[in-house]
């Protein structure tokens, strides 16, 4: 599911020209939810909302039901510390009213570059931002916050958006959860011993590792399978047996099957925790304490931090995805490409060689007693 929320602290919406500008920008940005904060307007009329949203039926919208419940709160933070304490107490009280996933957006009067006074002013601070609950973070793993261009206000509109990350090709990575599978290490040993490759030792090692990577990848796809698919299949089978047993006694075979499915679900849960722990890189926290949710949140946070939204090349800031890819590729190609240049060459044709007896003496086994004697 994709969602786009814009929060904008903007002054002067009493003016028709500013409302027209907001309408044009909303047509360009196309948000699902728009929160406007204008402290000078006491009463908002439906006509003002219609002028900015774009049509006479602005009060109604038809959305496809997806059973996703969430809450949004627009905040205009006070300037004094005592009033801020009251604000946070009110937000805490609101949190106690509902358990749904929650997003808060607005002017918190914090710090770092979404507000500036005038075009040439050196005063700037980030006072507009979004905060969201950990449950929201679990639902939207690719969420991002963006400060949109400043147009008609000292404040930049802020955008909360998801579902726009581009995933590149997946590279092979050894999963620690495979080690929990019975017989996996024996398979690796068997595969390794069956490889027959000739050449120098380093060549043989590299080729064996390449063959092993292919065998593990095939085994993971054909035998081990995706954890989510295995879990869903096991749950469906378990539910089918329980439904069939509602009107009759459970057979011995069904009891054994139920026990087997529950054991499989337990193994899948352990494997998921190991996998998420590896992705989160939280090696200081032990597995087996039901920390899967925590590992997921840390891994998602790392993913957001590693995502490249902008790239500065020289004095230019690039935001286009294709240009970012091209610039990164050019950088590393130039980094590992050497210009042609003259080099000294050496020939070893005239060097004298050691005798066969000297070679054998150099290669003989190390004897500790002779070492101490000599």
TrEMBL record:
Residues 7-155 form the Endonuclease/exonuclease/phosphatase domain. InterPro entries: AP_endonuclease_F1_BS (IPR020847), Endo/exonu/phosph_ase_sf (IPR036691), Endo/exonuclease/phosphatase (IPR005135). PROSITE patterns: AP_NUCLEASE_F1_1. SUPFAM superfamilies: DNase I-like. GO terms for biological process: DNA repair. Pfam families: Exo_endo_phos. Transmembrane segments: none annotated. GO terms for molecular function: DNA binding; endonuclease activity. This is Endonuclease/exonuclease/phosphatase domain-containing protein. It comes from Nicotiana tabacum.
């Amino acid at each position: 599911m994709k969602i786009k929320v814009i929060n904008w602290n903007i002054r002067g919406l009493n003016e028709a020209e500013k409302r027209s500008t907001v309408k044009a920008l909303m047509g360009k940005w196309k948000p699902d939810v728009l929160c406007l904060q204008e402290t000078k307007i006491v009463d908002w009329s439906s006509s003002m909302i219609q002028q900015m949203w774009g049509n006479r039926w602005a009060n109604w919208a038809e959305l496809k039901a997806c059973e996703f419940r969430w809450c949004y709160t627009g905040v205009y933070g006070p300037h004094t510390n005592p009033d801020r304490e009251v604000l946070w107490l009110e937000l805490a009280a609101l949190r106690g009213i509902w358990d749904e996933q929650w997003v808060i957006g607005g002017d918190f009067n914090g710090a770092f570059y979404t507000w500036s006074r005038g075009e040439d002013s050196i005063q700037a601070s980030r006072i507009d931002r979004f905060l969201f609950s950990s449950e929201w973070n679990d639902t939207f793993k690719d969420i991002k916050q963006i400060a949109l261009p400043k147009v008609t206000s000292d404040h930049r509109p802020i955008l909360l958006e998801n579902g726009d990350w581009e995933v590149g090709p997946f590279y092979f990575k050894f999963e620690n959860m495979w080690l929990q599978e019975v017989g996996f290490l024996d398979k690796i040993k068997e595969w390794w011993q069956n490889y027959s490759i000739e050449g120098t030792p380093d060549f043989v090692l590299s080729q064996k590792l390449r063959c092993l990577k292919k065998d593990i990848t095939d085994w993971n796809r054909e035998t081990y399978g995706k954890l989510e698919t295995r879990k869903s299949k096991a749950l469906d089978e378990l539910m089918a047996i329980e439904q069939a047993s509602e009107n009759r006694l459970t057979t011995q075979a069904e009891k054994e099957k139920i026990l087997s499915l529950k054991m499989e679900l337990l193994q899948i849960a352990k494997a998921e925790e190991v996998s998420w722990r590896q992705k989160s890189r939280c090696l200081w926290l032990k597995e087996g304490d039901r920390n899967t949710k925590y590992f997921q949140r840390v891994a998602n946070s790392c993913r957001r931090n590693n995502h490249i939204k902008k790239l500065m090349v020289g004095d230019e800031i690039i935001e286009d995805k294709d240009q970012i890819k091209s610039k990164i590729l050019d950088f590393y190609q130039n980094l590992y490409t050497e210009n042609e240049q003259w080099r000294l060459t050496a020939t070893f044709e005239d060097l004298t060689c050691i005798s066969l007896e000297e070679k054998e003496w150099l290669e003989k086994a190390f004897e500790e007693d002779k070492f101490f004697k000599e």
